[in-house]
Design a protein that fits this description.
Elements: H1 2-14, E1 23-24, H2 26-33, H3 37-49, E2 53-56, E3 60-63, H4 68-92, H5 95-99, H6 112-128, H7 133-144, H8 147-158, H9 166-182, H10 186-207
Antiparallel strand pairs: 1-3, 2-3
Helix pairs in contact: 1-3, 2-3, 4-6, 4-7, 4-10, 6-7, 6-8, 8-10, 9-10
């Protein structure tokens, strides 16, 4: 029950059914999802840890707004950290460990929310292969904050005339990164990661031109 409520609220935040900046109350959410307040409260605490929800003293909760400046800083951090993780993985991980990335060469995702989960899992897997526990933990925390941004960017692309086959193109970018890492080509891996994340940033900023989405 608790996981189900968490998944439902998180999905509604990701697809902006619960819009950035929206105020939330436990009673309202309990009625919305037809559950008691206890699993709602637990879900909100988990979502707060992910940076999707913030507490408003004596007022309840709020879906964290999407700020262009904050998104820009997150992208800068992500590029630096993911390049560092890939370089460390190439230097430290065994061939068998690098081969575990092969599960991300294809995705059987039903809907955008499932695709966003696949995307997060891929980038987190590269971070964990770095062999540096602190680096991987920090990188994964940054990556987790991108779920909503990824959803917004990809959904915006898919709704445009240029969006046909966008999921396949994004998976192909992952495959190219995997190939470079498994070939232990640090220069190519870093270049591909930088290009991949910059394309994500471009997609998101195109969506953020819509005033209701911006803080």
């Amino acid at each position: 029950m608790r996981d189900t409520v968490y998944d439902q609220i998180r999905a509604d935040i990701l697809n902006c059914d619960l819009r950035p900046g929206a105020q939330l109350r436990e009673n309202d959410l309990a009625r919305r999802y037809r559950v008691s307040k206890s699993p709602v409260r637990d879900a909100l605490l988990r979502l707060q840890e992910q940076g999707l929800i913030e507490v408003l003293p004596r007022k309840g909760y709020r879906v964290v707004p999407v700020s262009v400046s904050d998104a820009r800083e997150l992208y800068e951090m992500r590029i630096m950290m993911e390049k560092a993780c890939a370089r460390r993985a190439i230097e430290e991980a065994s061939d068998e460990e690098l081969a575990t990335l092969d599960i991300f060469r294809a995705v059987d995702a039903d809907g955008l929310a499932a695709w966003v989960t696949y995307n997060r899992d891929f980038h987190s897997a590269v971070a964990r292969l770095s062999g540096n526990t602190r680096l991987a933990k920090t990188a994964c925390e940054v990556i987790d904050q991108f779920d909503r941004l990824t959803f917004m960017g990809v959904s915006g692309q898919q709704s445009s005339a240029q969006g046909n086959g966008s999921a396949e193109k994004l998976v192909a970018e992952h495959v190219a990164i995997i190939d470079a890492i498994q070939a232990r080509d640090k220069t190519r891996a870093a270049s591909l990661i930088g290009s991949h994340i910059k394309k994500s940033r471009k997609r998101l900023f195109a969506v953020l031109e819509n005033p209701p989405i911006v803080q």
